[in-house]
Design a protein that fits this description.
The structure is a homodimer of 489-residue chains. Chain A has 489 residues and is an all-alpha fold. Chain A folds into two domains: 334 residues, no CATH class; 95 residues, no CATH class. Chain A is 66% helix and 1% strand. Chain A is built from 22 helices and two strands. In chain A, strands 1-2 form a two-stranded antiparallel sheet. In chain A, a hairpin with a 2-residue loop joins β1 and β2. Chain A is globular. The interface between A and B is large, with 53 and 53 residues.
Chain lengths: 489, 489
């Protein structure tokens, strides 16, 4: 294992975290809040440590897939733990477990909260809390790759570990250019949303926080009722932006490089929009009696479907009171998740596409046993390896899901709470049903369950494998054995 | 498609069904019940039709995997539809949907019932109802293979379609001998249970019906409270027999052929027993406060775990009232299911073993990317094809599961009812939780939902693929195109 490189990457990550704290500091200065002092001190500390540790580039910058996994997992742990310190020092979230939960929930773009009164937080902390969503949405390592040049395959191993989806989002041949391109699109869309919200009557502070929550498909609201008390036209705008951030960013890349034909042929985006339309229609029909008008019923349906499938987690209504079919469909799209190569979580539309196509081929092989057929997606052949890795993803997903439920079930809450709390954290959504419904929060869980959820959130955000490899003792064999060899030699 | 062979197989199936009706007829004669007339008339009719249709062997007895799937699916539909007629004619279950539901639930060894008062049924019908479990447990086509000689690969294609588990239960080289061996073990164990129950004080009628329900891992009780009102020692006996029938029959074959060393090395049986012990211990601990003594608490736990993991579906207590962790574990083992090559349902222990080993290998491949590793089970290499087919099984399972929930959810029952009713039918268990709990039944569902459950029960019993191929229009292309070609030629 390349320890020097690991320390270098973690240093850079801490440095970035410190620099990004400038935004809440500026915000706190404008509002004249005392919390600014704590943020400023921590930012200085993080920048200093990060700079010292990553000042000198290691000679050997090569990292293998195993090191990539460990580096990614550790980066996210460093982000969450260092990011939670201001909440503790300002005494806004005094408990360590709660503070890590809230910060991990932010960075992993889950949006599950242990806060019973969000509006009691300072503007400084609210801004930092929403900013974690934005940083976590596209990923801090992708950002690192965009700004730091690295050796050949190494950056690929990092990007693969952090980017969502079964196939790597390698838009342009060079990884660094891809990372840059992703961030350009990400920043442009975020700025666009801030402007649209601001000019449609939302205060600037609210616009920025909401845009961060939408862009990262995070879900932290800055009001206790999430989005319910904002004007209806704000609901429409946020719903549309949530859907936009859940689409494969390749789509925007193709649009900006003037290849609209290719962009609109992307089957994942088409299926994704199709699912949204289909599910919204059924839910709209089933909840029609609960709302005053067709507009309201459609708006509430679309907003909730968008928030569930993109795994954002905002809410404009208490969907826990909806009829069973609506709740079932919301939970189903929570599992499906957004597109690969987006900021959204969940299992991802393309994994289901590969699954469907594999089933179809299997049926065909029963009917015409002698024909060899391959699975295709957007004209590209999906080989056995991809099918295999998608299957593995489902296996590991199932395992973590059942294991998490097992631990949480000891608390004795109802089965819907247990099931949807794990669903909502592992898929990085936020709210679930019953006791973790959109008007509730996660404060009542025991610390053990909260750590299970923290694990699930990070595992879900990193698409399982990096965190699994990170926790496998065999991954560190080399480190423990090395000194022995030196003694022998 | 080999239509002549298809008709031949279906004829034999009907013939067997008619012959098997002799048992309820004898039972009805002993009790002097008027329903006997209807059973006798139908039995005569089925035997006559079956005999006429399958009198002449087709010249070409070869069937391919596609035909095997269609033949299997059609056999089970014929069994269920023809088997339900006596219930309708005796007016004990007048509705066609309900009668098919009850009979399909019997043959598929599910044990879900639409009857609100089981004890109102005649002895004749109760015996027929329990007998369907026994027939369905080992499979009518396996029986057919045991008695009718067929061409080389053809019988394999039939057996593969009907036998449970990812690998075919080919105990001895010749399929016919395997089928015979399976039935010998099956009959011996059933007779053993009848004798043990009878000599432990159960009435003979009850002993036979209970043994049929246990052997097929079915679950129909002949009392309204299932097994609750039988004596405690009966609970222990039935629990042990349920566990025995859920073990891989290969285990008994190895024991009878004096290879105990090999038998006790079978990892699937070991894992299966390990899961039962582990889950029973936790549940026993969690429900200890609800029962008077350690014996009762252990007995109730073991019985309910045995009934859930073997997917039998008997009950001695209302486990819907148990704490969340106990309910969660029961639902979890319902999904795991029994061993491959047993009469039990569910996903099967060995599928999970293959899944775990594949995950383990994947993690190793991240840590040592250059080493090629293979998945082994009991010393045999599990190749990519088996892993692939297990993955496909999970995919199709997921699809049917979510699709079924989607339709049932329109009825508006609570999510636990919707979730566990699909779980209980697709895994061939019977009772679930909430409105389909052990003290409830399926009578309140709409006809649409009942047909979904009938589909799920048959799909679950046949391990998904045969029923999927049967429903694929492309499977019948040859039949529809053929006349066209004749016209052209």
């Amino acid at each position: 294992m390349n320890i020097k490189m690991l320390v270098y990457i973690l240093g850079k990550v801490l440095l970035i975290e410190g620099v990004l704290m400038v935004l809440p500091i500026v915000c706190g200065l404008i509002y004249g809040e005392s919390q600014v002092v704590i943020y400023a001190a921590l930012a200085a500390l993080y920048v200093a440590i990060g700079f010292l540790v990553s000042f000198k580039k290691p000679k050997n910058m090569t990292i293998f897939i195993k090191d990539g996994c460990v580096a990614t997992a550790l980066s996210w742990i460093v982000l969450s733990v260092c990011g939670c310190i201001p909440f503790m020092l300002t005494k806004e979230i005094p408990s360590f477990t709660d503070a890590v939960f809230e910060t991990a929930s932010g960075f992993t773009t889950t949006g599950a909260s242990i806060l019973t009164n969000v509006e009691a937080l300072s503007h400084t902390s609210l801004m930092w809390r929403s900013l974690t969503h934005w940083i976590g949405g596209m990923g801090v390592l992708v950002f690192l790759l965009a700004v730091v040049p690295m050796a050949g395959g190494s950056n690929m191993n990092l990007m693969r570990a952090e980017s969502p989806g079964p196939t790597v989002g390698k838009i342009v041949p060079r990884v660094r250019s891809t990372a840059k391109m992703l961030y350009y699109i990400y920043i442009a869309l975020t700025v666009l949303e801030v402007l649209v919200l601001f000019f449609c009557g939302m205060p600037l502070f609210d616009s920025i926080c909401s845009a961060f929550g939408t862009a990262g498909t995070g879900g932290f609201g800055i009001r206790n009722d999430s989005f319910a008390s904002y004007a209806p036209h704000i609901h429409w705008i946020v719903a549309v932006f949530m859907i936009m951030f859940g689409a494969n960013f390749n789509f925007y890349y193709l649009l900006t490089t003037r290849q609209p034909g290719k962009a609109f042929k992307m089957s994942e985006v088409k299926v994704y929009l199709g699912i949204i339309a289909f599910v919204t229609a059924i839910i709209c029909f089933s909840v029609y009696g609960m709302y005053g008008s067709f507009e309201e019923s459609l708006r509430q349906s679309l907003f909730q479907v968008a928030t569930a499938i993109t795994t954002t987690g905002f809410a404009t209504t208490d969907f826990d009171l909806w009829p069973s079919i609506a709740k079932f469909l919301l939970v189903t799209v929570m599992f499906i998740g957004a597109c690969a190569g987006s900021t959204g979580g969940g299992i991802k539309v393309s994994r289901f596409q590969i699954m469907f196509k594999t089933i179809k081929r299997e049926i065909e092989s029963y009917i015409h046993p002698k024909t060899v057929r391959k699975v295709h997606l957007d004209g590209k052949t999906i080989d056995g390896d991809v099918v295999h890795s998608v299957a593995l993803y489902f296996f590991i997903y199932l395992l973590i899901f059942v294991g998490s439920m097992f631990i949480v079930a000891f608390e004795g809450h109802d089965l819907v709470t247990i099931f949807t709390s794990v669903t909502a954290t592992l898929n990085n959504i936020g709210p679930g049903l019953s006791m973790v419904g959109p008007t509730q929060n996660y404060s009542f869980f025991s610390n053990i369950s909260k750590w299970v959820f923290i694990f699930d959130m990070i595992a879900g955000r990193l698409e399982l494998m990096p965190i699994i490899v990170f926790l496998t003792p065999a991954a560190y064999k080399g480190i423990i054995k090395k000194p022995k060899k030196v003694q022998n030699g």
